[in-house]
Amino acid sequence: MTHSIASPLAAAVADHPGFLSPTGVEIAFVLVGLATLGAAVITVTTRQLVHAALWLVVALGGLAVEYLLLTAEFIAWVQVLIYVGSIVVLLLFGLMLTRAPIGRSPDADSGNRWVALGVALAAAAALVWIVVDAFRTTWIDLEGPAQGSTAVTGAFLFRNWVLPFEALSVLLLAALVGAIVLSRKHDTDAAVRSAPDTAARRDQGRSKGEGPGKEGQS
Amino acid sequence: MNDVSDVALRLAIVFVVFLVAPLLVGQTEHKVMAHMQGRLGPMYAGGFHGWAQLVADGVKFAQKEDVVPAAADRRVFQLAPAVALLPYLLVLVAIPVGPGDGAVGQVVDAGIFFVLAVMGIGVLGSLMAGWASANKFSLLGGLRTAAQLLSYELPMLLAAASVAMAAGTVSLTGILDAFAWWWLPWQIVGALVFFVAGLAELQRPPFDMPVADSEIIFGAYTEYTGLRFALFLLAEYAGIVILCALTTVLFLGGWHGPFGADGLGWLWTLLKTALLAFVVIWLRVSYPRLREDQLQKLAWTTLVPLALAQIALTGIVKVAIN
Question: Does A119 touch chain B (CB under 8 A)?
């Protein structure tokens, strides 16, 4: 990212590669970035729901290629594994389970689109600004050995960033437990079983006209 | 220039293996299934025991009309077979068949992640086919495919993670370099979980609920004919080859063997892969299809706990050794 976004000021610093003679990797980076951006725009503008999910695959795959070009091999494959392999499949599963018409969906639009555009632009501007500000003078040597290899990433993650990593996993665990709790609430079977005995008996008696001895058959 | 020709040669070899190995598995399946069921199988095409049957099938598929249903989503429908098939070709590039860097298409640093990630993409092809066919049976097949993938991806990853922990690396060549014979009993539970979950991911019997031909008429592939259907079949058999080769590399020691370590390593890999492919065929003949709830139950209540137990065991032994 730093190559294409960093300001010209940084490029003017001596010893650093400039923008006037881009290498093949940098050209590829920009081209893949443009393709990714295009796929992302189509994802949010298309009126065909499943097509949006499939364009999302292209956008996420493009991001993985960008990671590869920045020598972050491990991150790239994790991106493919988690996002393309699992999240999108989950998304498609949800679409197929509820509503996935072939062709355009006239109601696949929202009155909030201009607000959404504003929020997206603001978020993008903030992210770009942070990245530019943080990595202004950092350059990655694309020619040498990979600096984003698994060993390097692992050592970096578990030496410098253990605490945020563990905090994130606790957050995910909480989300997991929360999801289970939420889904159990609507499970009438479980509700009857966990409800007080009298309530279950009363329900049973109402539906079957019989007293005790029949509960647990729900 | 030498580098270029070297890479080209490797890719050409991988491509030829990709085209030939699935056909070999398919022909073996014809004959093995036939003999297990007390018949002969194909006997005429090619003369000797019907060896050219699959070639003849391929010619037949190529002659058929390429039909796209009127209500289908044309582009997605036509793209789906390619999405199902190409990931397996990419995976094959990263699988080492012998010792050293010379016997693998391309050394990938994060090999396990690469292989599992790219294999997961292949399922998108089935989902696209199921949705784009504009057919209720196809949509049901697609749904079942997605549900099956979501539940079996986890135990597969956990089992692979156990091996990565044992070897201390996620590179496939690195894992093979670290392998010792006692890993076999140590990782046997992980191996079983990986193999079973892989079978489910390939939708092979007894996990062929998504393509159950007797109830939903081949699921996502109902509307496909001709070459595109052949591509889906090819993807299934390529998947068998990949799964067996991966299980061999991760759990059975790949090119390690009791003897002939220098020069004959690739033979061990091929032998173990072929043996596992035979087991895949054997399971198809001998087990009835699992019902959807049985499928989910097996994944969540048997395979995931087993994989977690294997990871715990791996960790304990690893610490004890150190």
Answer: no
* Cβ-proximal residues to B260 (8 Å cutoff; 6+ apart), any chain: B267, B268
Amino acid A175: pLDDT: 93
B218: left (phi over 0), alpha (psi -120 to 50) or beta: left
Is the confidence at residue B131, as pLDDT, over 70? yes
Tokens standing for residue B136: 């209720």
Closest CA to B101 of B173, B17, B169, B18: B173
Q: Are B252 and B180 in contact (CB under 8 A)?
A: no
Rounded Cα–Cα distance for residues B283 and B205 (Å): 7
The CATH number for A2-145, chosen from 3.50.70.10, 1.20.120.1200, 3.20.20.70, 2.120.10.30, is 1.20.120.1200
Mean pLDDT, rounded, for A117-128: 92
Euclidean distance between CA atoms B184 and B205, whole angstroms: 26
B9-67 per-position pLDDT tens digit = 888 888 888 888 888 888 888 888 888 888 887 888 777 887 888 888 888 888 888 88
ipTM rounded to 2 decimals = 0.79
Question: Tokens 């893949």 sit at which residue?
Answer: A32
Residue type, A187: D
Lookup: tokens for B75: 């582009």
Query: What is d(CA A175, CA A181) in angstroms, rounded to the nearest whole number?
Result: 10
The more confidently predicted of residues B265 and B62 is B62
Query: Quick check: A152 contacting B, CB < 8 Å?
Result: no
Q: Do A102 and B134 make contact, defined as CB atoms within 8 angstroms? A: yes
Residues sharing a CB contact under 8 Å with residue B87, sequence separation 6 or more, in sequence order: B118, B119, B121, B122
- Token pair for residue B139? 């949509």
The CA-CA-CA angle for residues B204, B207, B211, to 5°, reads 70
Say yes or no for a CB contact (<8 Å) between A89 and B127: yes
Domain limits of chain A? 2-145
Label residues B96-115 b or e (16+ Cβ within 10 Å = b): bbbbeeebbbeebbbbbbbb
Rama region for B289: left / alpha / beta (φ>0; ψ in -120 to 50; rest):
beta
Cβ–Cβ pairs < 8 A, chains A and B: 88
pLDDT digits (tens, 9 = 90+) for B68-103: 888 778 888 888 888 888 888 888 888 887 776 666
Asked if B113 and A74 come within 8 Å (Cβ–Cβ), the reply is yes
Nearest CA distance, A66 vs chain B (angstrom): 15
Distance CA(A30)–CA(A23), nearest Å, equals 11
Range list of H helices, chain A: 2-5, 8-12, 24-45, 49-69, 73-79, 88-98, 113-134, 150-160, 162-185, 188-194, 197-208
How far apart are the CA of A60 and the nearest CA of chain B, in angstroms?
12
Rounded to the nearest angstrom, the minimum Cα separation between B148 and chain A is 11
Closest by Cα among B164, B167, B22, B10 to B98: B10
Whether A42 has its CB under 8 Å from any CB of chain B: the answer is no
B108 touches chain A (CB under 8 A): yes
